[in-house]
Design brief:
single chain; 5-stranded antiparallel beta sheet; 56 residues; mainly beta
């Protein structure tokens, strides 16, 4: 199972734009906030592992 790291770039209603931080990328990934920890805000660092996002 792979592990990926993200930062919350922006929040738009029920969705958040995540940017990968473990590789160099300018692409944003749109993720439903229901899949993310409820206490996220812009700038929050996340780890995605085993189909779960956790704050780091």
């Amino acid at each position: 199972m792979e592990t990926w790291f993200y930062v919350v770039d922006s929040i738009d209603g029920d969705y958040a734009n995540l940017r990968r931080t473990d590789i160099e990328s300018d692409e944003l990934m749109l993720v439903a906030r229901a899949l993310l920890p409820p206490e996220i805000k812009e700038g929050t660092n996340l780890k995605y592992e085993m189909m779960q996002y956790t704050i780091i």
